[in-house]
Amino acid sequence: WGNFVIYDLTPEPTATPTPVPTPTPTPAPTPVPTPTPEPTPVASHVLKLPVSSEMTKLQNTFSSYIELLKALFGIK
């Protein structure tokens, strides 16, 4: 008890520190002009799908799934 040894871990100075040279500021590079983007080509054909009926089916299925989960976990 109480036999603690304290070590001094500070290094002894060996020589005077050499000054760090300050870097000279380099001139900022000139910005490279960005090329103008090419216009997006328009689709030559448009595919019409019955999205509304598919979305209705998906919504009904999701609603049924949510109702099932609520019933399983007893959520009102």
Total helical segments: 1
Helix share bin: 25-40%
- Supply the helix-strand structural class: mainly alpha
Uncertain segments of ≥5 residues (pLDDT<50)?
none
How far is the first residue's CA from the last residue's CA?
65 Å
Q: Outline, from the CA principal axes?
A: flat
User: How many individual β-strands?
Assistant: 0
Mean pLDDT: 77
Could you tell me the strand content as a percent range? under 5%
- Summarize the helix and strand pattern as letters: H
| Rg calc | 37 Å
Largest sheet: none
Structure, described:
This protein is mostly helical and 76 residues long. The chain contains one helix and no strands. It has one helix at 51-73. The chain is flat. The two termini are 65 Å apart. The mean pLDDT is 77.
Short structural summary:
With 76 residues, the protein is mostly helical. It has one helix at residues 51-73.
Descriptive tags:
single chain; 76 residues; mainly alpha; 30% helix; flat
Task: List the SSEs and their pairings.
Blueprint: H1 51-73
